[in-house]
Amino acid sequence: MTEKEVQTGSYEGRQEHIPGLELPSIEVFQNIYSDRDYRIDMEIPEFTAICPKTGLPDFGIIYLSYKPDKYCLELKSLKEYVTAYRDVGIFHENVVNRMLEDLVKACQPRWLRLHGDYNVRGGIKTRVTATYNARTH
């Protein structure tokens, strides 16, 4: 399929603002065990954003796993960051990729995996996973 044959519907250009969207900053604290390789797993079971097509809320669970290097994520600021998505019209794929970028920028981990597991919408279940590995970047 050529680029002209791709059917983007009425969404062409409507998500291009997402990389520059202003969201609350994510704070970190010093990892005093940075000499050790360990993993932190988090589950955010009440994630909500807005469906850009219908304007209705999209619900899902965000799973975050990372191996910290010099810094760990501070939970209160992470909660404020995640809550800011409640008013954003954004596709599932863009949520996961934008969050990955912001989390990596904040804590500069050795490795990070972000998985969005969204509730069924219109008979379709969506799961989106993005990873970062400091060794390959």
Provide a descriptive summary of the structure in words:
The protein has 137 residues and is α+β, with helices and mostly antiparallel strands. It has one domain: GTP Cyclohydrolase I, domain 2 (2-Layer Sandwich). Helices cover 18% and strands 31% of the residues. It is built from two helices and six strands; from the N terminus they run E-E-E-E-H-H-E-E. Strands 2-3-5-6 form a four-stranded antiparallel beta sheet, covered by helices on one side. The mean pLDDT is 92.
Q: How many domains?
A: 1
Q: Count the strands?
A: 6
Quick one: biggest sheet? Answer: 4 strands, antiparallel
Q: CATH superfamily name?
A: GTP cyclohydrolase I, C-terminal domain/NADPH-dependent 7-cyano-7-deazaguanine reductase, N-terminal domain
Class based on secondary structure composition and strand pairing: alpha+beta
The string of secondary-structure elements, in order, is EEEEHHEE
Into which percent range does the helicity of residues fall? 10-25%
Strand order of the largest sheet: 2-3-5-6
How many helices does DSSP assign? Answer: 2
Cα distance, first to last residue? 31 Å
Strand fraction: 25-35%
Rg = 16 Å
The chain-level mean pLDDT equals: 92
CATH architecture: 2-Layer Sandwich
